[in-house]
């Protein structure tokens, strides 16, 4: 099911992959691939593809969604040599696409045939004293390991916060559509923290993603939607894709 909001379309394809587009406008994909979520998916219509961190780096997924003229916006800490999977290098991708590496304070304008996409990076990490930390402060996503992305599509801004806690600073952003990370599991914010963030942020629409892909990310999307709706925040589920 594709979620429609005015002229904006949001489709969750599983795991951290969302397709966001505006009518007659550019197409943006978040963190495409992994865990088979893009098996047999070859749209190759993405004008902009954003990649937040090592865990979500999947060159095969990128190639299945990216248009031939796509711009890949990849966080500068993403390091294929550090990833414990056999993955294509970023240099190899740069032979076929325009690759832009960004730090955690970036703002770039990407020109496409269907309009400009402005991309900002935002902080994404687990706090060493937060809900995902071990007793010694070790976390799955330390500061500097990854980022989130705020991007414009048509007249709206869309936030994919990436992997981390529901950081207080995110609530200060001007967000039209929040792709809420609700997987929990001691890895990222759970549905309760994500609902609290949505209430503080007050976006125009919330669409939960990044859950039910594997056991550690099991979450109740319907309960999250009910919680958010009870706070007078519009919310929609893309239930077609919740099998991850």
**Overall shape:** globular
Name the strands of the widest sheet in spatial order: 1-2-3-4-5-6-7
Broad structural category: alpha/beta
Q: What is the straight-line distance between the termini?
A: 14 Å
What is the CATH class?
Answer: Alpha Beta
**Strand residue content:** 25-35%
**Uncertain parts:** none
Helix-strand pattern: EEEEEHEHEEEEEEHEH
What's the CATH architecture name? 4-Layer Sandwich
Range of helix content: 10-25%
Largest β sheet strand count, sense and barrel closure: 7 strands, mixed
Tell me how many strands there are: 13
Topology:
Blueprint: E1 3-5, E2 8-14, E3 17-22, E4 27-30, E5 46-51, H1 59-65, E6 66-75, H2 90-94, E7 98-102, E8 107-112, E9 115-124, E10 146-153, E11 156-160, E12 177-181, H3 191-201, E13 205-209, H4 221-230
Parallel strand pairs: 4-5, 5-6, 6-7, 11-12, 12-13
Antiparallel strand pairs: 1-2, 2-3, 3-4, 8-9, 9-10, 10-11
Helix pairs in contact: 3-4
Give structural notes:
InterPro entries: RibonucZ/Hydroxyglut_hydro, UPF0173_UPF0282_UlaG_hydrolase. This is L-ascorbate metabolism protein UlaG, beta-lactamase superfamily. The structure is a single chain. The chain is of the alpha/beta class and 244 residues long. The chain has a single domain (3-238), classed as Ribonuclease Z/Hydroxyacylglutathione hydrolase-like (Metallo-beta-lactamase, Chain A, 4-Layer Sandwich). It is 14% helix and 33% strand. It has helices spanning 59-65, 90-94, 191-201, 221-230; strands at residues 3-5, 8-14, 17-22, 27-30, 46-51, 66-75, 98-102, 107-112, 115-124, 146-153, 156-160, 177-181, 205-209. Strands 1-2-3-4-5-6-7 form a seven-stranded mixed sheet. A hairpin with a 2-residue loop joins strand 8 (107-112) and strand 9 (115-124). The longest helix has 11 residues, at 191-201. The chain is globular, with a radius of gyration of 16 Å.
